[in-house]
Structures are given as C-alpha cells and as structure tokens.
Amino acid sequence: MRADQILHPTDAGLYCPPGDFFIDPVRPVERALITHAHGDHARSGHGSVMATRETLEIMAIRYGEDFTATRQVADGEITVGDTRVSFHPAGHILGSAQIAITPTAGPKIVVSGDYCRRANPVCAPYEPVPCDIFVTEATFGLPVFKHPDPASEMARLLKSMAEFPDRHHLIGAYALGKAQRLIMLAREAGIEGPIAIHGALQRLCDYHIEQGIDLGELIPATAKDVPAQLVIAPPSAFASAWVQRFRDPVIGFASGWMQVRARARQRGVELPLVVSDHVDWPQVTQTIRELAPSEVWITHGTEDGLMRWCELHQIPARPLRLVGYEDEPE
Amino acid sequence: MKGFANLLERLAFTPARNAKLQILRHYLDETPDPDRGYALAALTGDLKLRTVTPSLLRGLMAERVDDQLLALSYDFVGDLAETIALLWEAETDEDVPLRDAVALLSDTGKAGLPAAISAMLDRLGASERLAFLKLATGNMRVGLSARMARMALAQMGQPEVADIEEIWHGLRAPYQPLFDWIAGGERPEHAAKAPFRPVMLSTPVDLDQLQAFDPAEYMAEWKWDGIRVQAINDDGVRRLYSRTGEDISGSFPDVIEALNFEGAADGELLVRRDDEVAVFGDLQKRLNRKTISKTMLDSHPAGLRVYDLMIWQGQDLRELPFAERRAVLEGADFGSERIDVSPLLDFTTWDDLAALRADPPSTVIEGVMIKRRDSAYVGGRPRGPWFKWKRDPMVVDAVLLYAQRGHGKRSGFYSDFTFGLWDDKDLVPVGKAYFGFTDEELRELDRFVRNNTVDRFGPVRALKPSLVLEVAFEGLNESGRHKSGVAMRFPRISRIRWDKPAAEADHLATLKDMLP
C-alpha cells in the first residue's frame, strides 16, 4: 500500500483509510485518535476517542464527561481496522503522545503531533520512534528559532521581580501545559512562596497536582489584593477587566514567539519570556536526522523553512498544509 | 556585553519612563568603568563608531546561511540585525567587555572589518549579538532620550540634572570624571568651549491669576511657535542647543554660519522667508536630519529670534535684572540678517495684554510671555518670575473610533483613544489621545469600550462610532503621513460628550480650516 493510501489530509484532518480513523480531527468524526488535549487538536463530539489516559481525563475536565460516546485508553499496541497503532510520549504537555501507525503492508508512519525535546517536569520526555514516514509539526520551522534554556529566561524573570519588588509580575501562559510548566520552572528557579493563578487555570493545575506534579502553594488571583508577586494567567485574561485589580503590573508572556521582538511588541509585552513547548529549529532538524525517515511530511506551522532544509539535505518532504491548528493556541 | 544586551532589551520593552530610568540607573550602578560610560554614550548618541552597512552584514550571512532560508527568516523577523543575531551559529558564549566591542568598532580598518565582526559574533550569545549589531549599525531604538539618560545620572548622586547638562558637552565617553563626580568627587572642569547652560523656563498663568500682580513690574513679548534654543559663539566655537541640551548644530548649518557674535543667546529657532515666519511644520522638516540638502536650506531657511542674552562679549549677564539684559539685547549687533530681536509688547493693564493675546499679528504665535523686569536669569523653572500665557487651545468634537489598552498603572484599562471626524459619510481618523481625563472618567471610558466593541485587532478594539469626545490641541500641522492630511499637536480629551450624538460631531473640513 502506498503511503498516501495509509494516511492523507482531508478537510476534517488526517485520515487513515485502512484503520478508518482520523488523527486530531477538527470536526466531529466517527473515530478519532488524539495526540494531546490542546483545544485545536482535541475537540468534543466524536463517536469514539482513543488517546492517553491523561488526554482523555483532561478532555473530560474541559468538555464534560460526555465529550465522546466511547473512549479508549491507548495502551501498548492496539489493532484498529487493518492497522496497528501505538502511542509514544511527545514531551509537549501532560499526556501528549505521538501516534505510530503500522499497516499490514506498507510504510510505518509516525504522527508526532506537537512535540518538544527539552526536559519538561510536567510530562514524560519525547521518545524517538523509528519510522519510514515522519509527520512533523513546524510551528518554529525557521532557523531563527533557537529557544534558550528556560532557566536563563527564569533568571530574567527573577531579575525583573527583584528590580521592581513592588510590582506584580503578570505572566501570560496557555492554561494547559505552559502554565504548569512555568510554575515548575519558577519553583526550580527558587520561587518558594505562593504563586497566584487566574481562575481559568485552577482545575487544570489541580489535575496536574493529582497526577503527582508538585506545583507548590498556589493561591487564586481573584481577590482585590493578591499577596503573591508572581501571577500566572491565560493570555485572554489580559484583555479582561481582571487586570485592573493590579496597580502598575509588569506584563510578561511565556511563548516561543517571544524570541522575535516584533511579536513581543505586538502583544504589548514588557517582559517577553522565551519558553516553548514545541521543537525549535535545532531540535526539529536533529530529530529528522536522527530518525532518518525516507520521507518527511509537515503538518502545520512555518513549513517553507523546513521544506527548504529537507531539500538542502536531500530528504523527500511534502507539506500537508493542514488547517485548523493554531501556531500556539490561546 | 551581557549586561549591556540585557539593558537594551529591557529598555526596548519597557514603556514607562520611570521604569526605564530605574533600569538604566541600576545598570549604571552595577557596571564597572569604562563599560558603563560606553553604554551611556551609545544610548545618548555620543559614541562615534564606524558605521557598519547592511550590505556588509548581508555579505557575512551569505557565506553562512542558504539564501532562501535567510530570506524566509528576514521576512518573518523584519529586522536585519535581529535576523542575523538569531541565525548566527556562535562557537562560545562569552561575556565580552563592552569596551572590546567599542574598540573593535572604532579601531578596525575598513578591509579588516568583516572578519573582525564575524570573529566577535562567534564569541557572543544571541542577545549580545543583537546588542553588538545594534551598536555597529548605530541604531539603538530603545526609546530613551539623552535627556532621560542624564536624569538617570542625576538620580545616582548629588549633581542635579541641570548641573550635568551644563558640563555634558565638554565630556567624552567613557565619562570617568563624570562618574567620579557623581560618586562624590570633584566637579569636572569643562574644558570645551561653548558649553550648554541651563535654560530658564516659565510657569503657566491665566488672567485671573495675573490680577494678583502689578503689570508695571513686568514686560511682555510674543511666545513664538518654534523651538527654544541656545545659540553660542564662544571664541569662534559655534553651537546650537535645544532647551534640554541636545546639540542640534548639525541640522542647522545656516544658523551656525549666522552666529557672527561673541556670546550666548536664548531665543526661538524659526523658519523664516523674508519677514514671514513659517509654520511649525516647516521647521519640523529641518529636524533630526544628518545632512541637509541645499534645496532644503533654500526652501526652509532657518533663523533665530532672540529673547535674552546670557553671555555677551565675555560678560556673564545672568545675574542682571531682565530689564538691563534687555537693554544690552536691544543694542546688540548679531552680524546677520537671520537673527533679530523678539519685540516687546506695549501694555499698561492685563486687559491690554489680553487684547493683544487675543489677536496676534501672526499665526505662528502661541501666546505671550510675561517676565518680571527685575528677574535674574536662573536655570530651571523657578515659580514666579516668568509666566507663559498661552493662547486658548483649539477644540473639535470628534467620534471615538478605536481604543487600545494602556501600560503600567493603566494596565487592563482602555486608555489610548483614536478619534475621527466626518468626511462626507465616513469617519476619518485624525488623532490619538492618552490623557485629559480623570481616573473616574477613565473607568467610564473603559466600560464604554468594552460594551461597544465591534471588532478586535490584537490589543486594539474597533468601536461602534457613538461617543463624541471634545478634543483640545495646541496646534495643527499638515501631514503627508496621516490619512486625514493633518496632525494635531498635544491632543487631549478635554470633555466627554455623553450627551452629543455622533452625527453632530465635527467635519474634517472644519479641522482643516484651522490650519495656520
């Protein structure tokens, strides 16, 4: 069977005919395999969902227990139609996985989902899975993206907190994954006291704590006076009246995009922190070299840069131009 | 270099003035000499280095990165120095002292420059590479004026900002004697000729407040709408300074050439064609240019209208009463037709002066200056001896169109407002205002914005055009950069017209009629 008979893009997302399932479909389908619980990859309303236990639990927290008719925890190698599928850690957020598809005949395909190769205390590390076709994201698919060690970004946060001890530091971070990682990074950097969190983060932080991730003392950032200098909130909160309770805060934002100044300025950020849950350029190119697949497919992001790199390295590559995935969702 | 890179980045992203000052002061406190001095000079534009051209940098990159990847990256980043800083694959990440980077950029010959720059980039981390490239291309863009840099220095020790301004132009990077003085040492002797001297400023006044004073004790003159300057010829050394001590001689060679006297004069810089004083917008075209074309010199000739004399023919007049300085001024020969004396106004009562102010002989007059006859020339803004009585601001009723969230104390509040006027059936944006309202009004405006949003573009909200704002402004220039064709000076919201329907707001034509 040819590769594009095993997996190909459709309007609803990547479809696998021999297994009759979609991966991360953007509209309701009969059978969905989901790589991770970010809203643009994990939607409600499918007939059945297969994902890691954590992804299923997070989807239930976000969408309610009835987010799908039936669910199945991905554990070990599972036969789906005429394929065998297995889930492997992607290092992106808690529960994130790559999906390997082995057809009865034809190339083995690994769909990475979103992945990251930097150590992340909130999830299992990325695991390289040998394959014939590697389907990768290219969120940061340009050679300008070399994300620094997050510890150095935390040092900048600490320096600013010391420089302006009377000002709250409000750091924007996506509610699932980034926020908890940021809290863990802050703990590693030596912030021991309470960290305040916006209400929208509460349930997801609680879930991480239940999973054994020690986020330390978290207090709600809902009172008039918030007795913690560091406050974490989802990006959307910065446009709401919630911010008005803070007098003269330092506004920061934690994202891989913060490496580009124009992006940081656009957001009106005073303290850009380059912290990313995605592979940067050295990581994505290193991963392709390491896996040495016979072909690379690129799902979404700035694929032109990665396409060019593959061309220069004589690796066959093609863009899938999937729509519906945001570069770093909010 | 790590400290310097961090400083540039923090300054670039910090909008609030006080926070910028604090960041700079901390840097200057904790950075050793001579690096802090070089950093200061880089920020104030006083570091004269070799200018590295974009084409040299592109050449360096072409050897290292595939041209398509470079083009894609540059498209995305939008800034060449930043693109190169991010793309460069360095060998180490050293903390190279800033003085070494400065030495490289001042001492390297043209032929050796590309290799020297590459070797330096190889030693630096990404932020430091960007700082080095900004230094090399002479383009700091961190939103910090030389004046603010001197304010940060003043916060570090005893000397006042005016004291620092006075000796600034006699100092050279890395400013060791200046830092020694700030730390409590000797005041540096200013060896340089034609130093800047602190300017005397006035306080605002109105007719009611003037009633408390005896008009006989005061003299008055027009307040011209140009740029207040200090023009000096000190034993052949000629300088033109702005009132904050920026040396603007380079932009005004015609005025410099006209300073055929010995002394220091305080006056207004104006563009003048024969006897006609041109509008402020014409003067603005002459500002901030590295080179002035002959065409520009001919079409926008600058001149000086003198208000006062600080030094004249070797004598320091600043201690004398204003009336005595004025007598010297009226007898002075400036040796050029480009320089004349600001005429006094003839008045007996404050009402006489009010009548003159209400009907000035030129549109390039923005009010009257009132000066005590016995006032010495004192740098700074002493309360009392000099008053400015500005003409009433112009006002239009405009419609609120867009709002953007503010920073710092206004975080979370929509506090930056774009407003427009009717042009036929459309509303054309004519300006932006950030102030003029009380805290209570800010809360009301914020509520209005949240309840009347029709669209969002990042931090900006487009609003249902339904609220009328009375906008006051000090002047109006023609502007090719604004869609409306005009630009307001110091616009602010003077009243929120909750009562007025948007359809009754003013038309663009009404505003254009106010052009001088």
Automatic annotation (TrEMBL), chain A:
Q: Which UniProt keywords apply?
A: Exonuclease, Hydrolase, Ligase, Nuclease, Plasmid
Q: Which domain of life is it from?
A: Bacteria
> Which Enzyme Commission number(s) are on file for it?
3.1.-.-
Q: Gene3D superfamilies from the xrefs?
A: Ribonuclease Z/Hydroxyacylglutathione hydrolase-like (3.60.15.10)
Family annotation (InterPro entries): MBL, RibonucZ/Hydroxyglut_hydro, Xnuc_lig_assoc
Provide the top EC class: hydrolase
Q: What is the annotated signal peptide range for this record?
A: none
MF (Gene Ontology): exonuclease activity; ligase activity
Note the PANTHER family from the entry: BLL1145 PROTEIN (PTHR11203:SF49), CLEAVAGE AND POLYADENYLATION SPECIFICITY FACTOR FAMILY MEMBER (PTHR11203)
- The entry's protein name is Ligase-associated DNA damage response exonuclease
From TrEMBL, chain B:
Q: ATP-dependent DNA ligase family profile domain: which residues?
A: 304-423
From the broadest rank down, the organism's phylogenetic lineage runs: Bacteria, Pseudomonadati, Pseudomonadota, Alphaproteobacteria, Rhodobacterales
CDD domains noted in UniProt? Adenylation_DNA_ligase_Bac1 (cd07897), OBF_DNA_ligase_Arch_LigB (cd07972)
**PROSITE patterns according to UniProt:** DNA_LIGASE_A1, DNA_LIGASE_A3
Q: Which InterPro entries match?
A: ATP-dep_DNA_ligase, ATP_dep_DNA_lig_pp_1105_fam, DNA_ligase_ATP-dep_C, DNA_ligase_ATP-dep_cent, DNA_ligase_ATP-dep_CS, DNA_ligase_N_sf, NA-bd_OB-fold
- The record lists the organism as Paracoccus albicereus
Name of this protein: DNA ligase (ATP)
Task: Tell whether Acetylation is among the UniProt keywords.
Answer: no
Report which residue ranges the record marks as coiled coil.
none
NCBIfam families according to UniProt: DNA_lig_bact, PRK09247.1
Please tell me whether the keyword Translocase is annotated for this protein.
Answer: no
Q: Which reaction equations make up its catalytic activity?
A: ATP + (deoxyribonucleotide)n-3'-hydroxyl + 5'-phospho-(deoxyribonucleotide)m = (deoxyribonucleotide)n+m + AMP + diphosphate
Molecular function (GO) terms for this protein are: DNA ligase (ATP) activity
Keyword list (alphabetical) reads:
ATP-binding, Cell cycle, Cell division, DNA damage, DNA recombination, DNA repair, DNA replication, Ligase, Magnesium, Metal-binding, Nucleotide-binding, Plasmid
> What EC number(s) are associated with this protein in UniProt?
6.5.1.1
Tell me the Pfam families matching this sequence.
DNA_ligase_A_C, DNA_ligase_A_M
